[in-house]
Each structure stands twice: as C-alpha cells, then as structure tokens.
Amino acid sequence: MKKIAIIQEAPCVLDKQRTVKKAVEIIDSVAAQGAELVVFPEAFIPGYPAWIWRLRPGSDGSLCQRLHARLFQNAIDLSSNDLTPLLTIAREKQVTVVCGINERDNTNSRSTIYNAVITIDAEGHIVNHHRKLMPTNPERMVWGFGDGYGLNVVDTPVGKIGSLICWENYMPLARYALYSQGVEIYIAPTYDSGDAWIGTMQHIAREGRCWVLCCGVALERKDLPENFPDLDRLYPVDEEWINPGDSLVVSPSGEIVAGPLTNQKGFIVLDIDVEQAAISRRALDVAGHYSRPDVFHLEVNKSRPSPTVFKG
Q1: What are the backbone angles phi and psi of residue 29, rounded to the nearest 5°?
Q2: What is the distance between the alpha carbons of residues 40 and 214, in angstroms, rounded to a whole number?
Q3: Nearest CA-CA partner of 228 in 3, 15, 4
Q4: Catalytic residue among 93, 132, 184, 214, which?
Q5: What's the CA gap between 275 and 297, in Å, rounded?
Q6: pLDDT of 242 above 70
Q7: Which residue is catalytic, options 3, 9, 36, 42?
Q8: Taking 70 as the threshold, does the pLDDT of residue 205 lie above it?
Q9: Is the peptide bond before 46 cis (omega within 30 degrees of 0)?
Q10: What is the number of alpha carbons within 13 Å of residue 207 lying toward its C-beta?
Q11: Annotated catalytic, 132?
C-alpha cells in the first residue's frame, strides 16, 4: 500500500513566494501523516487565472494587461531558485510532489507563460516537466502551447506516475501516450469540476486500468488579494465560491474511493494498492494485449522545439 495526498487548498493568489511557502507547510503536514505522494492543483503557483472566464480579451484591454502583468511577474522561472524551498522539503521528507505552476519561458523570448506541471522526486530533483499541450478557450490568451517533451511516465517509490492537465484528459492520444508507458497512478490537476468531469475521471480509470488522482482548484472570493483589480465587478461581494474543487480518487475499476470534495478546502489522504493497476489489466490492457498494433499506431514527438536555430 502507498499513501497519497491530494491537496485541495487555495494558493496565495498572484504571490509565488507566499504560495511556495504555503505548499512547503502543507507537504510538511501531510508527510507527518505518512504521505509518500503529494499532488497540488492545476496552476497552483501562483494560482489559476480564473478571471479569464469572466473578462474576455478586448472587453477591457487595460484590465487584462494589468492582471497578466501580475501573473507574469509571479510565474515560475525554472532556471532560477524560485522552487528551491519545494525541492528541499521533498528531499527532507522523502516524498514525491506533483505541482501545477504558471511557468515563465526562460529559453526563447522569455515572455511567454505556460501552464505546466512538474514532478519532484524524493531526492528533490525535477524529474518531469510537462507543459499543457492545448490551452482551453480563453486560456490561449494567457498561456502558450505546450509540447510532447513531458508526456512521460516516471518510475517513483510510489509507482509509475504520469500527469495530464485539465482538458488534456479529453485528448485520447495524449492519454494513450501515458497508458503505453505503463502508468499506474494517473494524475489530473484541473480547474474543471462537476458530474460530467467526475464521469470522465471514472472513464479514464476504467480505460487505462489505473488509479486516477484528480486534484481540483478550490477557490473562494476571500482567497483573492484585496488589491485585485476590479475585484467587486468581477466577483460580487455576495459571491462566495468561484470554483468548487471536486478532487477525488478513482480506483482502476472506475469506482470512486474518496471524494469528491465539493465547496470545501482540505486534503484527501489515502492508502492505495498500486498493484491493482497491473492486475486489473488481465481483461483489458489498451496498450498491451488489447492494442492491435497491426491496425493502429501512435507516434509521439517528445522534442521541445525552438523557433530559432543559430548556425555558424
């Protein structure tokens, strides 16, 4: 049995240093309960840009610009020491950490933000870095397009883990890329919620015969900073919940074994039998005996392309 922890807590919105500090405190707390794998929501550092669903680009260009500037200034630069406290606590507590971040590009224009999820191993090293392949709808005005570089399943002390972000989980070929690498613990950090989304998590568990850990964004109006631009117009004072969370754990049979946590903050700390994933594939193994490679073939480009090549 392996003990996992799903963290349904709000970040310190638009403040990366305080959010990293909060994440460290949470890891310390759940590690004391025996957690070996700790999962944070989509874009946890420094928060999912929920305003994009209420403020369409062009409706108020100045406000869009101000909010984007705040997000940009607090996005994570992976070439810096932004995440050093997180790497340190993972090593000290010997836990694997999966965390969603807003990532600032540090290799090309240095001006694009990506929706990324990182995996930190128990030695404090980033062992996977995945950028969301296709930002959803208005997200495309905030985040750049990702690539296949991070479509990896990582072997960790808790099992073989892989991650897809939010509506990437609706992309059959992206899912199959993880199935074909033997994913046992399938992690889905997301802003989505509700019955339809929960049904999707159950379908993925049944399809891939893997554990599915869905980590949702739970956000209340009170979580937004007091100096949030146009706060009262975007989020009226009588509005409490902005997003409900709906984190849950689904077994390889598709059964919900914990959650969903709805309109509440907290942790799901649970023992799971990781071996159930491989055993349950006796009847259905979509990347094994059920795959028909003579008929179907998937080719995945795992490079990280650059727009510029300098020669000479």
Answers
A1: -70, -50
A2: 10
A3: 15
A4: 132
A5: 27
A6: yes
A7: 42
A8: yes
A9: yes
A10: 17
A11: yes
**Domains present along the chain, CATH in parentheses:** 2-280 (3.60.110.10)
Which of these is catalytic: 166, 210, 214, 215?
Answer: 166
The whole-angstrom separation of Cα 283 and Cα 28 is 40
Q: What is the pLDDT of residue 309?
A: 86
Is residue 256 within 8 A of residue 250, CB to CB? The reply is yes
Task: Provide the whole-model pTM.
Answer: 0.96
Active site residue 207: no
Average pLDDT, the chain: 96
Asked if 166 is an active-site residue, the reply is yes
Q: Other C-beta atoms within 10 Å of 98: how many?
A: 27
**Amino acid making up residue 281:** R
Record the tokens describing residue 137, joined without a space.
């709808």
How distant, in Å, are the alpha carbons of 1, 179, 183, 251, 299 from that of 176?
26, 5, 10, 18, 11
User: Distance between alpha carbon 158 and the CA centroid of its chain, in Å?
Assistant: 18
Report the share of the chain in percent with pLDDT over 70: 98
Separation CA 21–CA 14 (nearest Å): 13
